Amino acid sequence: MDHAAFVRANTAIARTPLVPEIALHLATEITPIWQATEAWLEARNLEPPFWAFAWPGGQATARLLLDEPARVAGRRVLDFAAGCGIAAIAAARAGAVVEAAEIDPLAVAALRLNAALNGVEIAVTEGDVVGSACRWDMILAGDVCYEAPMTAHILPWLRAMASVCEVWVADPGRAYLPGQGLDPIARHAVPTSREVEDRELREVTIYRMRQAGTD
Predict the structure, then answer these.
(1) pTM, whole model, 2 decimals?
(2) Which residues contact 70 (CB under 8 A, 6 or more apart)?
(3) Residue 190: helix, strand or coil by DSSP?
């Protein structure tokens, strides 16, 4: 499969109301992936297309970074489980040296296309970086606590990383967000679609994660 061609064929270039400065290849009502069923994806051996949506946590993080670029300017930043890459692109525009990590090859293709679309340089890493030694000054993690296995896999590593770098977790109230060890630094109300959320507006809190043992 030509992953880049698949992304182009199944998305449209769009902008979100909260972050209109950034254009992205996204699922919209006019694109095939918007109507894709689980059976359609399974028949093509595809994972759910999380990369085709600008999730609230990523949007809120991007807005904060564009409004306050000094938070990341000149720093080495990882956008973890980056999806469409909206936070990574905002960090790059703010002057950071950015790496974006994703395990889905279609997400990797979308990241590269979206970076090029916005004229920024992002190093894209395909694969699971959980367990890697820290090579960043900051890690951005948006909407990552949506299911128990994912949270259990990533949380110990993020906690360990918080001992050696700054870790942000942007969350719109997902069920598995840990109840301790997070200090809020900003909030944004993010317009959403009922096609992917259960409401039309999500209140996203961006937290700084405390290092392990400081809860």
Answers:
(1) 0.92
(2) none
(3) strand
